[in-house]
Design brief:
Length: 247
Amino acid sequence: MLEVKELMVFYENALAVNNLSLEVKEGEFVGIFGSNSAGKSTLMNTIAGLTLHLKYREERRGGERITILGRLKFDGEDITHLKPVDRVQKGIVLCRERHPIFRDNTVQENLQLGGYLRKEHEVKESIAFVFELFPSLKRRRNQKAGMLSGGEQEMLAIGLVLAARPRLLLMDEPLLGLSPVMQQELVRALKRLSQEKLTIFLAEQYARPIMPLIDRGYVIENGTLIVSGSGKELVDNPEVRSAYFGM
Ligand SMILES: Nc1ncnc2c1ncn2[C@@H]1O[C@H](COP(=O)(O)OP(=O)(O)OP(=O)(O)O)[C@@H](O)[C@H]1O
Ligand SMILES: [Mg+2]
């Protein structure tokens, strides 16, 4: 479904992603792991088209020079030069940290807005599904989003993204900043989404809770691919184990 081919991303002269090739097949749950500054966000943003958008904006302002080399394909089609909104239209949706929510609207209204491009009965269905995934949101459905805890807002942001019915869900460090209870709720939700055959590509620094969920994973360091393999292969790799999974 997604193919990343020999991708390189430079900010000025600093190399953030180094000759990275990987793929995510339809229905797979793939993880990408790496420590701080490994290039996870740059990769996710590049797949979503945000790095290209930033590059054009910087060029207009005469600011930072961003170079993107290599190719991105989605369903066999070259999307390397596509605008972010056109990628969303194809079903490529990125859930980032601090994804915007509508703070003055209730949880329920937020989810309705998230599905605004779709038919009413479909939206109802996906809102019901989001509430099933995140029971804590259901309990607060009539509260203003701005009144939710940080973790609940994060869940709502993910719910908003799901209400848009992505085909490829990209997630950048969704566990970051969540309490252990919220992390468990999210891990359960991810497991369920993966059972429903949603294609997921997720970046995390804190790999441990994600490992049991993934079909395959990649580990990157300074933008460079170190190892790849099934969840079990990664956990069994002694180097990966000590460096990334705290085991
Ligand atoms: N807009 C930018 N301008 C210049 N350098 C950047 C920019 N964004 C990221 N970088 C640099 O690119 C490298 C990769 O950063 P990136 O944010 O992709 O890593 P990350 O794996 O997401 O890290 P973290 O775990 O901290 O989120 C880092 O060295 C970072 O300083
Ligand atoms: Mg990041």
